[in-house]
Request: fold
Amino acid sequence: MSQTHLLAYAFGLSALLTPFLAAQTKPQGNQPASAHVEQKASTKQNSPIPHSEGDRIFAQNCSRCHTAPDGFSPNISGTVVRHMRVRASLSQHDEQELLRFLNP
Amino acid sequence: MPSPRRDFRFFKSLWSARPLLFSVVVLFATQYGRAQDTPLISGGVGFFTNTTGGSTTYLPIISPLLAAPIGDHFLIESRAALLEDFTPKTGGQPGYDHSHFIGLTYLQGDYIASPHVTVVGGSFLTPFGTYNERLSPIWINNFQDGPLIQTLGVMTTGVGLGGQLRGSAVSRRNFSIDYAAYFSARSGNEQFNSKRSSGGRVSLYLPEKRLEVGFSYGRLLQGTHENFYGTHVWWEPKDSTFRLRSEWARGQHAQGYWVEADYRPTNFGGLDSWIGRLEPIFRIQQTFRIDNVASDSLPAINTQRADFGLDYNLPHNTRILTSYSRQFSSSGNVNIWEIGIVYRFLFPAWKGKQ
Reply:
């Protein structure tokens, strides 16, 4: 087997193993916001009646393009929302509601 | 044993990515206020294979994204791509050739000037249609490859170097309108390759209908000036996990469209059941040449393509993407098989304040 093939398979194996390693090493202390977002987003993604203003904004501006991440630290919720404000052209009101939704 | 020449090429590529390294240094040197505003590192790592007409290529890729807020109004964000492309040798020779690429996709600073205006400066994704800005990240796109018309209207490179105004013009409970307008300078820089152009996009979203309709315009301002027009329609029926996305774009020399539909079956235990994690996708696309001037990257002849995808959304932000495509054109029909896996990561750049 050539070195090129070896390198390709090594990359592939790394990509396959990365999520499982990440799952094993995920710190437990950062769960609150993450679990909150994932649970809300997955259970309400297609709910006919939004449960809150933030829920509605999340569904209309975030999960229309991508599935909700499994979770993230509450330390970056403000950064996530500001990134989404620019990327999804959120209004100031929507930004604040989304931040409240991520940090109840 | 790795050759010194190959090592030299690697470090040369690394040197060419110095804007990315610079932004990382800036990121870590900046002080941050609120605990929620810790800079983040997100992105995707993936491994893709593509078999077109019996020839298989391999593409391991890492696409990190940095976002760092500064104060209450600034945000610096950047996305990069690090990949190695393995393609079969031509001329009947056995083995593979490979090439690597390290580069910035964009690097921009955002200033939130008012509730309705955000000023963007730097190297940004061209706001034309929806694919380039919304769906191109590897951890978002349902298919490995973009639509055939993805280069139409985004001035081929997909990136502008200059300034942009964007934001929410109106946001009501029953409708909202957002906009983006940009001007880009010409740049031949390896990391910030862009064309002198201007344009923008306006979108109307009706939340109750879950319908979005938008119009895009772009004008190339170098060489032969050319106009580009585009429209997009996205629709997600209520009480359903069905999604319909579509775009049409027309340039001076070619036009085309794509329509993509996908569905998550939730009737068998919800989105987190093993069936609910399945995601069948269908995309149809066509391109039409208006003349033979090949100033865009669309196929040189009229082409039709049907893509049948089946993705699986694993736990821990991991997706398996599979698809079969049949492409029809007068130069010959071809089968395209694609399989890939993508892991999406998202974490603070450092621990931050509690």
Remarks:
- Helices of chain A lie at 3-25, 31-44, 53-61, 77-87, 92-102.
- The two ends of chain A are 55 Å apart (CA to CA).
- Residues 28-102 of chain A form one domain.
